[in-house]
């Protein structure tokens, strides 16, 4: 089945912050199912992992909103956590990029002792993070992992269609198929490409056709 034909099959979605939607498709459905199992996670913590642009931060924010989670900066953790009487829900994003290991170890223990939940996001499984503290390393090695993977053609096409629709733009399926085949494979790339095409369409007073898509795609790539 071609990408254009697949556009006729809507993907499930759920509300996120603002008016954005998180689309569910084969590359992320296992991770979504594990996140959705909250509060019945297999342990006190869950690691949501994936490469940049895979949508992990978006899904983490969906969970944080649902759970009423408190978001903590990985570079500004502290040891004396106070969460009140209710079981805490805590989100720490990009925890693999540098964190106070002692503070994260204490945070994990406090969440577990209070029967709460901790979500950590990163580019790869916590067992592979460069952690020096032995006690924290042993904790992270047991954390279940929800792996996002990268979006496939169907998911990228659906994301493009939705982002164009959010801007009141209708783009022909062959143009969507062309973009999916030639663009960088990430949600961030889709966002930047749609914004650039919208701007060019308005500036030049023309619809979004394949020639315009080809030119703007090259410009977006050159801009990095």
From TrEMBL:
Concerning InterPro entries, the annotation shows: Hda_lid (IPR055199), P-loop_NTPase (IPR027417)
Domain Hda lid residues, every copy: 157-217
**Short name of any one Pfam family annotated for the protein:** Hda_lid
Return one GO MF term.
DNA replication origin binding
Q: Give the record's GO biological process terms.
A: DNA replication initiation
Q: Which GO terms describe its cellular component?
A: plasma membrane
| Highest taxon above the source species | Bacteria
The residues forming a coiled coil are none
Q: What is this protein called?
A: DnaA protein
